[in-house]
Design goal:
Elements (H helix, E strand, L loop, with lengths): L3 E9 L4 H6 L9 E8 L4 H5 L7 E2 L9 E6 L13 H4 L4 E11 L10 E4 L11 E3 L4 E9 L9 E4 L21 E9 L4 E6 L2 H9 L5 E9 L5 E4 L2
Parallel strand pairs: 3-8
Antiparallel strand pairs: 1-2, 4-5, 4-7, 5-6, 6-9, 7-8, 8-9, 10-11, 10-12, 12-13
């Protein structure tokens, strides 16, 4: 088990709550609701799994007819109020292949975020799972699916490429170094210590300002679960 050290949510409110009220529809919807998780660098489990292969994000726009594959764990049972055991953690992973049938940069109906539709069924429980293009890049995240058997049933993916500013809030995997993350590090030379890693230089400067004067900000790649940093020019 790997314990989550912190979680950050990035949200933007609905465009018109008053209109929602007049039309008698839910006003709790979000234009954007995304969360990033981080883990403690000294977590033992992370040290045991350093050979993982990070997923590549892409800014490519999907096109109608593109083949994609969604991956998730639809049969994963709830672990709320019960002990986590081997049975829960070994549920089957599920992959579903289909073709893009529509690209909707402004979203659809009451879900006003960038979306693309796929002609395959994604069972409940897959939400948040990655959607890959044919190059093996993550092009979106599983969002929802129509009832199977209904007329023109499709599945829908949240597509983050068109959202300005979102990319800098997502982990930026270093494509040249599998297992490394690229961004702005807050470091101390002697003794060597990496205090923080972020994709936003301004945020790194803020963190640095709260620490001793021997800390500085550097652009580079950090190996996950370690203090190993490859520095590069700004």
């Amino acid at each position: 088990m790997v314990v989550i050290a912190s979680a950050t949510a990035f949200r933007t409110p609905p465009e018109d709550i008053a209109l929602d009220w007049l039309l008698n529809r839910a006003s709790s919807r979000m234009s954007l609701d995304c969360m990033t998780l981080s883990f403690k660098a000294d977590n033992t489990r992370l040290h045991e799994v350093r050979d993982f292969l990070p997923l590549r994000l892409t800014g490519k726009w999907p096109e109608i007819g593109d083949e994609v594959m969604a991956v998730g764990f639809p049969e994963l049972r709830s672990i709320r109020d019960r002990e986590i055991d081997t049975d829960v953690l070994t549920e089957r992973m599920y992959g579903s292949i289909g073709r893009v049938t529509a690209v909707l940069p402004s979203g659809r109906e009451h879900r006003p975020w960038p979306t693309f539709a796929v002609d395959s069924h994604w069972p409940g429980g897959m939400s948040g799972g990655p959607v890959f293009n044919q190059d093996g890049e993550v092009i979106g995240l599983v969002s929802s699916s129509d009832e199977p058997g209904s007329d023109g049933a499709q599945s829908y993916a949240f597509w983050f490429a068109p959202i300005p500013g979102l990319q800098r809030n997502l982990p930026h995997v270093d494509p040249s170094n599998p297992g490394w993350v690229r961004g702005w590090a807050v470091v101390r030379n002697a003794p060597w210590h990496v205090a923080a890693m972020t994709n936003d230089r301004a945020r790194a400067e803020e963190i640095c300002a709260t620490l001793a004067s021997d800390y500085s900000v550097r652009l580079g790649s950090l190996r996950a679960g370690s203090d190993d940093l490859l520095s590069s020019a700004d």
